[in-house]
Amino acid sequence: MKQVRLTKQQKADQLTDARVEAFKYVKDIAVFALTNGSTRAFQLIWYAFQDYEKRLMEADHYIKKHFREHYTLFYVLFTHKTITDAYWDLTPQVKDLWDAVPELKGWREKYR
Question: Of the N and C termini of the chain, which has fewer Cβ atoms inside 10 Å?
Fold first, then answer.
């Protein structure tokens, strides 16, 4: 089977899409774990967020290497998310469940 080579822009788009999907997954797993009363909610959200950070670093490294002119302070400000960003995207009901878990509340408060 013949492999298709991606252009630099296609590869950057692919890495960006993976980063965006990983952050969406953080929010999805938070909603799922918290609304279902999982005792492992913190661990599930933590691992999902670690995966997001891994994808973020991959995308950052590629953008820095191949599109240096686009890697600016504004790029970093608008693409780097913290756990607080995920928290604020949740519904008020899920935020209440989040705050009921001491580890999650403490983690979020580190990024005020």
Answer: N
- Sign of the torsion angle spanned by Cα atoms 96, 98, 102, 108: negative
101, 108 in Cβ contact below 8 A? no
Tens of pLDDT, residue by residue over 46-89, are 999 999 999 999 999 999 999 888 888 888 888 899 999 999 99
Query: Whole-prediction pTM value?
Result: 0.88
User: What angle (nearest 5°) sits at the alpha carbon of residue 75, between those of residues 70 and 80?
Assistant: 140
Domain of residue 89 covers 8-109
- For residue 2, being part of any structural domain is answered with no
Report if residue 67 sits inside a domain: yes
With CA atoms as reference, report the closest residue to 33 among 98, 92, 108.
98
Residue 91 neighbours by CB distance under 10 Å: 10
Paired tokens of 103: 């580890």
